[in-house]
Design goal:
- Helix content is 39%, strand content 14%.
- It is of the alpha/beta class.
- The protein has a single domain, classed as Alpha/Beta hydrolase fold, catalytic domain (Rossmann fold, 3-Layer(aba) Sandwich), CATH 3.40.50.
- The strands form 2 sheets. A 4-stranded parallel sheet has the order 1-2-5-6, sandwiched between helices. A two-stranded antiparallel sheet has the order 3-4.
- Strand 1, helix 2 and strand 2 form a beta-alpha-beta unit.
């Protein structure tokens, strides 16, 4: 997980970016939270797109259903090296969302993910809590219909309870694939808000 965080920070620093609208989707909420916590002066708005929101000391496994952790560990064991986790088939975009060519291209890019990205706990200073944050909730129901349950519902509830900017989009969990125009429109609207320049 620290490698993913370092990758995000590397872009912010190398490009000398400021007032960034930093977005994380799904698991991506974890590395962007850590990166924003370490580089708060570079972030104007932190946006979670149907994403996990860790607190200090939590890992992705703490936020995901226990059945996912069991599946991830079993998948890593099947690879023979004990560290690679493949995307579960029931979380892949189903047929019918987009053309089959686009869907196959997207799935082909969903490579195995290191097991430690799910098990490593985050270390936060609290700086991220002082940043403007927003949550884009996908209401298409894909995760709620899965056998493991919807781990994003508590994240959305937290965002609303804490008074973040909050928007909903009638799209499945992968809105960048199924509803790219709607996703971009909401991101533009959020980035134009007064919170970005506070």
């Amino acid at each position: 997980m620290e490698t993913h965080v370092a990758d995000v920070i590397g872009v912010l620093e190398h490009e000398d970016l400021e007032q960034v609208v930093l977005c994380g989707h799904s698991y991506g909420g974890i590395p962007v939270t850590c990166a924003a916590d370490r580089q708060p002066e570079r972030v104007g708005l932190l946006v979670y797109i149907d994403a996990l929101i860790p607190r200090d000391g939590e890992s992705a496994f703490d936020l995901l259903p226990a059945s996912f952790a069991r599946l991830a560990r079993a998948t890593a064991a099947e690879h023979g090296d004990g560290w690679r986790v493949s995307m579960p088939p029931d979380l892949r975009p189903p047929p019918g969302w987009v053309s089959e060519d686009v869907r196959e291209h997207y799935i082909a890019r969903l490579g195995p993910q290191p097991l430690a990205t799910f098990s490593d706990p985050v270390c936060l200073t609290g700086a991220v809590e002082r940043l403007p944050r927003a949550f884009l909730r996908c209401t298409g129901g894909q995760l709620a219909a899965s056998s493991a349950g919807d781990p994003i519902a508590p994240m959305a509830a937290r965002a609303q309870t804490e008074g973040w900017l909050y928007r909903e989009l009638m799209a499945p969990h992968d809105p960048q694939l199924a509803e790219p125009v709607g996703t971009a429109a909401i991101l533009h609207e959020l980035s134009d808000g007064p919170s970005v320049v506070e």
